[in-house]
Amino acid sequence: MLSRRGLRIKAMQTLYIVASTENMDSKMAVRQLNKSIYNSHQAYLYCLHFITELAQQVDLEAHMKKNKYLPSADDLNFPITFFNNSLIRSLIDNVYFNTRLKKEQLLDWNDEEFAKLIYNQLKEFEPYVKYVAAAPDVIQDKKIVKEIFDYFLLKNEYFDEHMENVIGTWADDEYIVKGLMEDFFNTKEISPSTERHLFDFFITAEEEEFAEVLVKKTIDEDTYYDELIKPKLMNWELERVSLIDKILMKMALTEFLHIPTVPTKVSINEYLDISKLYSTPRSREFINGILDKLMNEMKSSGLIIKSGRGLKE
C-alpha cells in the first residue's frame, strides 16, 4: 500500500498533467490518478520479478559451464549461491506471486538478453562478489537482495532505461517503488498470511478519498488559491512561480481547508520534503514562507477547522 507521501506525489503528478493538458476535468483527473497509483504497484511487482530473473541467469550460466565439452574444475564448481538465495527461492516458488505476475501481464516485459546484460554487470558489484564467495545465512540472503535493488539496480542507467520503456511513469514512480520495496524487505517472511499484503494491489477507502480530495479540490479551487497566494508573493508575479511550486502550495491549501484529519504543520512539512525531490533548491524556503503566512492568517480568520484527537487548530 502506498504511503501518504506516495499518494501526495501521485496527486502532484496528476495535477501537473492537468495543468499541462487542455480540457481535462476533475473526473478525468481522478481516473488518471488511479491509473498512476496502479502503475506504481505494477512497477514494484516487476522489480521483484526482475531480481528473480537475475538469479535465473546464475543457473543458466552454471548449466552452460557444466555442459562444456571439457569443463574445468571451476566450471563444474561454479557457485549458484544467488540462485539458491532463500528470499529469491521464496519468490520464485510462490504460486500467488507468480499468479499476480501473469494476471498483470508483467511476464510480457521479460527480455532475456537485457537480463543477461544486467547480470554480467552484477557480477562486478562488490557486495555481490563478497556474497557469492561466502556461506550466507537467511539474514545475508535478504541483505544482498536489498543491496542489489538499492545500490545496483536503482543506480544502473540500463535498468533505468528499461523501466522507462516498460512503465512510462518510472521516473516519477521510482521513489514510491523504493518505499514499497522497503515494506517488502521489512516483512519477516513470505507466507500464506503475508503474500496478499505483499503482492496484491489495495488502497483503503480512507486513502483513496484522501488522494481524490487532493486532486478534485485543488482543481476546483484553483482560481481561489491563486487569489490567496498572490498577495504573499512580495513583488513577485504568480506567473513567474514554477508550476511545481504552485501545485505544491495549492495542494497544501487543500489539506488546510478540506482534509480535517491532517495537522497543518504536517501538511507543510510534507510538501517541503516533496519540493526537495521535485523542485529547485530554493523552493523549500519559498514555499515554506508562503504557506506559513497563509496558515497563520487562515487560522486567525477561522477558515482552518481540524477535527480528531489532538488536531484542534
Short structural description:
With 313 residues, the protein is mainly alpha-helical. It is built from 16 helices and no strands.
Protein architecture, described:
The protein has two domains: 4-199, no CATH class; 221-300, N-utilizing Substance Protein B Homolog, Chain A. The chain is built from 16 helices and no strands. The chain has helices at 4-20, 26-66, 73-76, 86-92, 95-103, 112-122, 126-133, 138-153, 157-166, 170-186, 195-199, 205-220, 222-229, 243-258, 264-278, 283-300. It starts with a helix and ends in a 13-residue tail after the last helix.
Which SSEs are present, and which pair or pack?
Blueprint: H1 4-20, H2 26-66, H3 73-76, H4 86-92, H5 95-103, H6 112-122, H7 126-133, H8 138-153, H9 157-166, H10 170-186, H11 195-199, H12 205-220, H13 222-229, H14 243-258, H15 264-278, H16 283-300
Number of strands: 0
Oligomerization: single chain
Share of residues in helices:
55-70%
Question: Domains counted in the coordinates: how many?
Answer: 2
Order of helices and strands: HHHHHHHHHHHHHHHH
| Through-space gap between termini | 29 Å
Biggest sheet: strands, sense, closure?
Answer: none
